[in-house]
Amino acid sequence: MDKLLEFGRKAIFYMRVLSGYEERRIRSYRIQLQHRLQKVILWLVEHGMDIPDDISAQEKKAALKNIPEQIILSEVRRMVEDMQSMNKKLEDTQEAIEEYFKPIDKEAEIIMKAQLEGEEKSMREMTKAMQRQALLEKAESKRIANSQNSKTDQQNVEKATRSDKKAETA
């Protein structure tokens, strides 16, 4: 469950990065830090503490600009590391899920094979039963045909004997 929550958090983080939300957040954080630094410098000046004079105004501005950029760069590095670790965790989670479902897949495969074998067996039995039925019907039709032939032969013999008797009596 913790892995699932962590995955959800990382997915939301990716969404925020892709949508630009994180970029805006970093920008506002940089501006906020810049304002804080300016307030600290003003406070230092107001309370009689001097900022070294050997630093020119340009250098002070550059230093003030540099600090937030360094912070931003460190934040970006941290975010990239987080993304890489999240990718690693995703791969590990995917492997764990596949490992978890391997026995289930094997059991499903065994069940499917058993079902297919059962169906094949029943199909063979049905085929044999149909062949037996066809042989029985064929034998029955031959028997009926033979009995009809014997009846017609018997009738022919009777007709022949009647006609012989009529011929003798006449």
* Inertia-based shape: rod-shaped
Order of helices and strands: HHH
Q: Roughly how many Å apart are the termini?
A: 115 Å
Helix/strand/pairing class, anyone?
mainly alpha
Proportion of residues in helical segments: over 70%
Number of domains: 1
Structural account:
There is one protein chain. With 170 residues, the protein is mostly helical. It has one domain. Helix content is 92%, strand content 0%. Helix 2 (21-46) packs antiparallel against helix 3 (57-169). The longest helix has 113 residues, at 57-169. The radius of gyration is 49 Å and the shape is rod-shaped. It starts with a helix and ends with a helix. Residues 144-158 have a biased composition (Polar residues). Residues 159-170 have a biased composition (Basic and acidic residues).
Entry summary:
Helices cover 92% and strands 0% of the residues. It has one domain (2-169).
Topology:
Blueprint: H1 2-19, H2 21-46, H3 57-169
Q: Key terms for this structure?
A:
170 residues, mainly alpha, 3 helices, 92% helix
